[in-house]
């Protein structure tokens, strides 16, 4: 399966995004996310090791609060068949380093969902929802080694701005920015 459908011939190709859906995470999604992200390769650029189920229980509960209070969160990402394949959305950057207080857009997908255009399609939906919620700008923090996520940020039209060193991992991260 290709990541996007193409109709026509170059230079007149029409690219269509896959029909992904975003929904507010449920209690059950904590266990789904734990299962989807148990792969060290999926977690390579976000700490390396899979998290405990309790981390996802807290994360999904926090996302439900964000959605109720702000109108956006990290939503559960559903593939065209309706199966959960990860999350995508936005939340405040609440760490004491980096773009503290700004709204970060992000995505994380299970490895079988990589390369299908899901992250870009979900991020575009997220940007539409953020505009509707009155958010004026977003950032994306991407580990400098993560070429796939950097490519998504660039496809969205985000510009690479400053870089930071993550205190916990010591890895450099690029901060991409975009006004809405």
UniProtKB/TrEMBL annotation:
It holds the Pfam family Acetyltransf_3. InterPro entries: Acyl_CoA_acyltransferase, GNAT_dom, N-acetyltransferase. One of its GO terms (molecular function) is acyltransferase activity, transferring groups other than amino-acyl groups. Coiled coil: none annotated. Gene3D superfamilies: 3.40.630.30. It comes from the Bacteria. Residues 20-180 form the N-acetyltransferase domain. PANTHER family: GNAT FAMILY, PUTATIVE (AFU_ORTHOLOGUE AFUA_3G00765)-RELATED-RELATED, N-ACETYLTRANSFERASE DOMAIN-CONTAINING PROTEIN. This is N-acetyltransferase. It comes from Streptomyces longispororuber.
